[in-house]
Amino acid sequence: MFSHFFGRSPPFTVDSRLFLAAALGGGILLCAVALVLRPAWPFLLVALELLVIYAAARQGKQKRWLELLAALSVLLLFLLPSARPVATMLALLVFFLTPFRYRRIAAVLALCVYAFSLYPEITLEPVVFFAAFLALVLLVSEATASLVRRLENYRAFFEEDLTLARLLQKQILACSADLTSDYHFELLHMPAGDLSGDVYDISRPADTVLRIFLADARGHGVSASLSAMLIKSEWLSVNRADQSPAEILSRLNQRIIERYGDTVSLSAIILDIRENELTYASGGHLPQYILQKDELRELESQGPPPGMMADAHYEERTLPFPSPARLILFTDGLIEGEKNTSTESGLSWLKEILPGSGNLSVEDTARKLIKELAHRHKQDPDHIHLHDDLTLILLEKRQP
Fold it and tell me: For residue 13, what pLDDT band results from cuts at 50, 70 and 90?
């Protein structure tokens, strides 16, 4: 608030009440000190002034000689009462030469000195106390303004970096719609924060094979998102058409352990979908589902999470996947909408709602699942807040 009056900076976006609260707190502290150091008031006042001069010098401010004149006028007034005329002249000089735009305490001090000289009946102690109080108010206000300004700059830079990272991650995860043109396909990717630890990929190792990779990096936030990008890079290097899902998962596990040790681990599932069958391998991932005629079939995990065991062994299973069947893949954000929600309870409501969704399109099913998730945790489906990243993939063969 005071910085707006004595400064040339544009208005701050932070509420001015913050400055007022800091100033009043400093004033109360100064009053307490005054009761203890009553004889030392002149020196305390000069010390405050010298502190401002030092701060101005550190920031490369101009007009420092005006602060020196203000401090000298205070010293003359208290140490040499006979030099009152000289102190008054110095105070007037400082007062008229110090522009408001330089945010200086010198003008306030000089004004108090001049008022004391002009009205001798004013007792010295209230004037000094008032001057020192205003000095501390401005000092605290300016320090708070500088701190808040720096924090706002850091936050702006951080948000800009996060925005760029979010756009880059979105581009890296993007998949061509042509890859799933012969399927009814719906994909929802909902990060819990600015960045996501989930990673997925859709590829065509052969004309008759659709390969889906879905993984969830350990952890949350920026560290998980960095791990996710490393996982996507390693996946692209091991994804070969001549290898099965289990072989690819084993290679992925070895590369992660060799390159990153135990700093990166993940749950993952890899599926190869052909005309009427599905082959998959899973490592540490949640059970996934195939819905066929209102009956759910579970795709259980067949091995440990990649990145944890060098000698991990992964098996693969092949299941029938006839034309009307629907595949439902997801990460744990779908069943852990709240921190106290267990995996079992999350899977139980999912297994209750999925069998009755066979007559809905994949788009409507996805919306229904998100709506139910929001309802369970008393949130708005259009503004749902997740405690973990959520990726949801629904796929169904198009009818000829």
Answer: very low
Q: Are 398 and 184 in contact (CB under 8 A)?
A: yes
Ordered alpha helix ranges (H), 82-179: 84-97, 106-118, 124-173
Buried b (16+ CB within 10 A) or exposed e, 25-45: ebbeebeeebeeeeeebbebb
Say what the pLDDT of residue 69 is: 56
Identity of residue 366:
A
Per DSSP, what are the bridge partners of residue 213? 201, 270
Tokens 């001798």 sit on residue: 120
Half-sphere exposure of 44 (CA within 13 A, CB side): 20
Cβ of 166: how many Cβ atoms within 10 Å? 16
Mean pLDDT computed over every residue of the chain = 76
Q: What percent of the chain has pLDDT over 70?
A: 61
| Secondary structure (DSSP) of 38-99 | GGGHHHHHHHHHHHHHHHHHHTT-S-HHHHHHHHHHHHHHHH-GGGHHHHHHHHHHHHHHS-
What is the DSSP code (8-state) at residue 177? G
Asked if 313 contacts 327 with a C-beta cutoff of 8 angstroms, the reply is no
Helix (H) or strand (E) holding 210: strand 209-217
Tell me which of 62 and 138 has the higher pLDDT: 138
Number of H helices, E strands in the chain: 11, 10
Q: What is the pTM of this model?
A: 0.67
Residues 6+ apart with CB under 8 A from 334: 346, 350, 369, 373, 390, 392
**Torsion angles phi and psi, residue 19, rounded to 5:** -70, -40
Q: State the pLDDT at residue 316.
A: 93
Handedness of CA 373, 377, 382, 386 (dihedral sign): negative
Q: Does domain 175-397 have CATH number 3.30.200.20?
A: no
Where do the domains of the chain lie?
2-153, 175-397
